[in-house]
Amino acid sequence: MKFKKITKNKKKDLQLRYHAIRELRKSGWKLHNKFSTFFQLQGNPKAETDEFIEGKFKFFDFEQDWVMRTKKEFKFELAYLDETE
Lower CB density within 10 Å: C or N end of the chain? Predict the structure, then answer.
C-alpha cells in the first residue's frame, strides 16, 4: 500500500512540474541546463549573437529559499538553452 502512495505522489509531482515549466516558458522564462534554473531577460540585451544573450537577467534561486534574484551582467550561452516541451 505504501509503495502505491509514493508512486502516486511522484506522478502528481511530475505533473505539477510540467505545468509550472510550461507556464514559465509562456511568460518568457528560459531554462538553463547547466544551472538547472530559469532565467528571464530584463530589458534589452547588451549583446546578442547566435551563441549567447548578454544582459540583465532575473532567475530563480532554488538553492536559497526559491526566490527571484537578479544578475546584472549575465551571459546566457544558448548551447545550454533547454528547448524541450
Answer: N
Distance CA 35, CA 63 (A): 11
Q: Could you list the residue range(s) of the whole structural domain that residue 70 is in?
A: 2-82
The Cα 45–Cα 28 span in angstroms is 14
Whether pTM exceeds 0.85: no
User: How many domains is the chain built from?
Assistant: 1
Task: For residue 83, name the pLDDT band (cuts at 50, 70, 90).
Answer: confident
Band of pLDDT at residue 1, cut at 50, 70 and 90: very low
Reference 45, options 61, 28, 62; nearest CA is 28
At 79, list the grid cell: 548551447
> Which CATH number characterizes residue 25's domain?
2.30.30.1020
